[in-house]
Amino acid sequence: MAGTILTTEPRVTTGKQRSVLIIYTGGTIGMRHGPRGYVPEPGLLAWTIRSHPAFQDPTMPPGFTPASRHGQRIRYEIKEYDPLLDSSNMGMHDWVQIARDIERHYDEHDAFIVLHGTDTMAYTASALSFMLENLDKTVIITGAQIPVSEVRNDGVDNLLDALILAGHYDIPEVGLYFRSRLYRGNRTRKTDADGLSAFSSANFPALARVGIDIDVRWEHVLAPTGERLRVVPITCSNVAVLRLFPGFPQHVLENFLAPPLQGVVLETFGSGNAPDNRPEFLAALRRASDRGVVIVNTTQCDRGHVEAQYSGGAALLDAGVVGGADMTTEAALTKLAFLFSSDRAPEEVRRLVGRDLRGELTGREPRRRFSFREKAFVRSVAETLSTSDPDGRAAIAGALYPVLMCSAARLGDLAGLRRIIDGGADPNAGDYDRRTALHLAAAEGHVELVDYLLSVGASPDTRDRWDHTPLDDALRGGHARVIARLRGAAGTDADA
Ligand code: ASN
What we know:
Layout: E1 17-26, E2 31-34, E3 37-40, H1 44-50, E4 73-85, H2 92-104, E5 111-115, H3 121-131, E6 132-133, E7 138-142, H4 155-168, E8 174-178, E9 181-184, E10 189-190, E11 199-200, E12 208-210, E13 214-216, E14 230-231, E15 239-243, H5 250-256, E16 263-268, H6 279-291, E17 294-299, H7 311-318, E18 322-323, H8 329-341, H9 346-353, H10 375-387, H11 390-411, H12 414-422, H13 437-444, H14 447-455, H15 470-477, H16 480-489
Parallel strand pairs: 1-4, 1-5, 5-7, 7-8, 15-16, 16-17, 17-18
Antiparallel strand pairs: 2-3, 6-14, 8-9, 9-12, 10-11, 12-13
Helix pairs in contact: 2-3, 3-8, 8-9, 11-12, 11-13, 13-14, 13-15, 14-16, 15-16
């Protein structure tokens, strides 16, 4: 199953089960209230959830959920750390221990859940995302604001939802699940100390939303690299965060930047600004940069990019400070630690820290897909087709047909679709995501297009890059007539 992604409507895999390792590091989720406040209590979490009917099928040995409505049973094991930690007591070596445990058990399980305190969860999630290179299985970090030992709590829902996600979907990322949202871990911050929606991901949309249905936003999920998992441990701790404020004392800055510091996240004002009327301030940053300290500029704002729009931002660039785009402080800090852990030269770290390594930042130009409706695109295709030789034309047409068919299918353009297929296009040809015209027509609920495509030999069993069939798309869109057509046409491989 490595490298594949299940469908939004999980396939019925009766008799099959997925195995999830729950790595329980501590946090409020398994705490009990004592005389000095909440403290983690060994064994309590495992005992509580195994006596909960949603987590334990009474007819099965310990660690089996009841079968889901898709017939899928999740087998889980809990690996409890000793000691269990409040996440405020965690250090970088704890991040490495979690990464190593995932690596050690990688082949035995389909997915991993890390139960963790909320206070530093976003740091751990970010650190794991960098350390787990070539991840192709689901890793979800979660926890709670109220322990499962209390009658009213958020721990049961968070853990159960995370288990269902991990037990049904291959989302090859380090996600952070909290209060019905799965976020990309390295995009999150803890933004509410009291509320149950404690995390936000201001610069990147949720990867999944859990409501009546589970809606995985596959278009946001990173594709696996296809390489074997490799853990690159974080061993460099000479990194720090410096939050500017008006009138920041010069001597504090000088002391802060002293060796052995290697990496700094500089939290600046607005879109990346710092004073440009204090030459001694900029000179101190320049001296540190020249010594090999890598300084990354992130914003103090909750949302948005750092860019040198004002002269205060440009002055920082002149002082050797690198733009951190829309990275969170947590991501920037753990990324610096990660990059310095492999003995890279400062120049190399400076080059990589502003690059997107694990989806932790958005480049200034958002990634765009070709749109068939873009005039410039259409014009350039027309020009190319009119000037190239017949062989070239055939090659270009072959490459474009799938995109054109998908575009026509999405728009419900039956005449256009017919024209392309009559012109020789293979109705089963997929676009760059291996999505076919039938996927698009099914997703949009265009019954007459579905009928036409089936009549010219389009296969209802083709799977796109995320392993979705056209039926999955129709189910997701709730298009009953299309669902009926596709169920009637599907081969033995089809499901649901
Ligand atoms: N102090 C706790 C922790 O981070 C907070 C929590 O889990 N809600 O471990």
